[in-house]
Amino acid sequence: MKPIDIEAMTIGAVYRHIRGKKLSPVELTDLFLQRIKKLNPVLNAYVTVTEERARADAKRAEKEISRGRYRGPLHGIPFSIKDNLVTEGIRTTAGSKVLAEWVPEHDATVVERLRKAGAIILGKTNMHEWASGGTTINPYYGTTRNPWDLNRVPGGSSGGSASAVAASLCLGSIGTDNAGSVRNPASFCGTVGLKATYGRVSRFGDVPGTGGFSSDHFGIFSKSISDCAMTLQTIAGHDPRDPLSSEHPVAHFSRHIAKSVKGLKFGVLRGYFEDKVATEVTTAIDEAARLLHSLGMKRVEFSIPHMDLIPAVQTVTSRVENVVHLMPHMKSRPNDFSRPLLHRLIGSLMIPASTYVTAQRVRRVICEEFEKAFDKLDVIVTPTTPITAPTIDECKEGFVEVDGKKIALQPAGVSLGTTFTVPFNVTGLPAVSLCCGFSSSGLPIGLQIVGGNFEESRVFQVAHAYEQAARWFEKRPESPKNGGSVKTS
Amino acid sequence: MNVEAEMEEQIRKLNTEYGFNLSEDEIKLIVQQAEETERLLRPLNELDLIDVMPILKVEKKKVKK
């Protein structure tokens, strides 16, 4: 076997070597642990590294494989987990001071399923405090850096997971997405980031207070669409411990991934915050649309009549559903919340119950409008984020410069970075972000591909076709010490 | 009492009940944020929602053929 290039490594590229006993899970785990030791002090992607346990799990995996008990493509593969998924025997902080010392006694279902598949958990990744923001500037656990430019944020709230995957500190990661918290950092860090259909993946074992129960989803970070499909295959499916998980049968996600997309229709959404999109992002999305067209897909422009109400619906839904979980902590330990978050939570307590119910009625109207749109479409494409990763300083000031204009990052309602992701938290539709180019300053730009209910296979098929034709995955961030300029392999 | 005064009163009540120790500036800031949120949410009430049931769980039964 050739020397291992850890930066080029994907699950798809290494699992056959592990299965064929040409690559040792112990050596692979060591390689990643060494890299974490070297780069995590700079990136701050991990808040906890479970070195001993990871080595023990890798030894077990190696033993099993050598005895012919190969469990499948994730056997021996290093993963990380966002710090708001509970992990048995491993501290789980949710990015908060309140839970700084909490060590849960059980695993979240997705962690349990990953372990059962033989994946090696390397540790827990940093996140925005209580998953309540999109920067991963955390007052208690430090700021996570974007591997493409250390002066910039990785996005959030699952910023540690995105940074870890982009910098090759693991091969896959699990995050959560209440308003775009997987897809936004995936876009800013140039990784793949998926949230499947609402109910497709069990949310048993999420830390309460880190997302609305009807808008939050667990999601996947990976380096390729095919890796993402393999991971979803492992974690998807009904879980009796999560009453909101779906009994809809799980498809074989990789089976049709390489099928031609010729004749499929992609929708381009019109009339929704187009003026907020940076010119460089618009250009990259237009290029991506042209590429999909060149692959034989048909472009259809469409609009959703009540799209303008989405920020209001999302604001009510996630804030009300979330704050109820945090009220006991707010009462017992108000000083263990950052003040800006505490202010927002107090504001959430003032939203009337009648407004919550009205929002859920409007939500039905919007869901039906999207269902109708999907009668004529196979997928929808949008930018994932209207801008590329802002600097840490811009986030602290609250403004970013877009095409020479100063724009607020956190206006009333949804933040700028989640403008295009929240519609699919409101509707629960499956959506993936993947890289569709780079800005003039070398920052990744994200393309979002959205499917109909439980149409993850279709999303993977279109995303895979785009990914293989565009080949942006060949660009990787340089070693973080250089500040993140782009190199091509 | 106007909306702003009502909000302020509500925040002061919460401040006492929860022991937040909010300063006067913080109370003003939260009132301002709550007003902005209220303005954002106002259009929700302008839609005709007769016969529309709320979504209390995102039902995912319909699958495109």
Give an overview of the whole structure:
- The complex is a heterodimer of chains A (489) and B (65).
- By secondary structure, chain A is of the alpha+beta class.
- Chain A is built from 14 helices and 17 strands.
- In chain A, strand 14 and strand 15 (444-451) form a beta hairpin.
- Chain A is globular, with a radius of gyration of 21 Å.
- By secondary structure, chain B is mainly alpha-helical.
- Helix content of chain B is 52%, strand content 0%.
- The model of chain B has no long low-confidence stretch (mean pLDDT 87).
- Classes of the chains: A alpha+beta (489), B mainly alpha (65).
- At the A-B interface, helix 9, helix 10 and helix 11 of A face helix 1 and helix 2 of B.
Quick description:
The complex is a heterodimer of chains A (489) and B (65). By secondary structure, chain A is α+β, with helices and mostly antiparallel strands.
| Largest sheet: number of strands, sense, barrel closure of chain A | 11 strands, mixed
Work out the helix count of chain A.
Answer: 14
Number of helices of chain B: 2
- Which blocks of ≥5 consecutive residues of chain A have pLDDT under 50? 482-489
Largest interface: A-B, 50 and 37 residues
Question: What integer is the average pLDDT of chain A?
Answer: 95
Secondary structure: number of strands of chain A: 17
Total beta strand runs of chain B: 0
> What is the first-to-last residue Cα distance of chain B?
56 Å
> Overall mean pLDDT score of chain B?
87
The whole-angstrom Rg of chain A is 21 Å
- The coarse overall form of chain B would be elongated
What string, H for helix and E for strand, traces the elements of chain B in order? HH
* Global shape of chain A: globular
Q: For the largest sheet of chain A, list the strands in their spatial order.
A: 1-3-2-6-8-7-14-15-11-9-10
Which spans of chain B have pLDDT < 50 for at least 5 consecutive residues?
Answer: none
- Structural class category of chain A: alpha+beta
Q: DSSP strand (E) fraction of chain B?
A: under 5%
Name the structural class of chain B: mainly alpha
User: What oligomeric state do these chains adopt?
Assistant: heterodimer
